[in-house]
Design a protein that fits this description.
204 residues, two-stranded antiparallel ribbon, 10 strands, single chain, Rossmann fold, alpha/beta, 42% helix
Length: 204
Amino acid sequence: MKVAIVGGTGAFGRALAKRLGDVGDDEVVIGSRDEERAQTTASELGVTGGLNEKIVGDVDLVVLAVKSNATLQTATELAAAIGTTPVLCVASDLRFNDEGVLPGRHQGSLAEEVARIVRAPVASGLQSFAAANLLEGDPGDALVCGHDDRAKELALDLAGRITSRAIDVGPLENSRALEGMTAVILNVNKRYRAHAGIRLTGLP
């Protein structure tokens, strides 16, 4: 599988690219708005790099791994270049205050907004993973949702390469819960100085 990671020079994008590179079964290309930065980071990781709009065309799956506050703008800018290539959105909309981290939206999810912007089918997942989880090698269960079977199949395939268990958790609307879970995990990590993940019980 050929995977383009948009935002591949950020912490999560770098960690995902490194993990996929270590597995060795995928062709990984990372993107940035700065071509030189993408190529420098790619060289460090042993993958390929380039401008975001140039890397998303000839791939099987686009991973939208930019910061949450740039997700919708990036999706808008790249919609034409992505075309109908399936997209995996890993972002979570969050709010930060003195009490901790809170879900950023009262309705909907970033992934649902991305699906309204691009022509491509969109899946959502990996929100319970932090960059540190990926680098340490035990990120927990990967939870993935979406309406389109092909997009979800590719996202689950990718997730299964970086963790021991990838789980289909239903339609794209459930991204609201996945994105909200990011806030829960960040609060746990801060309180217990940990890199927490999620494991579902009762499954084989």
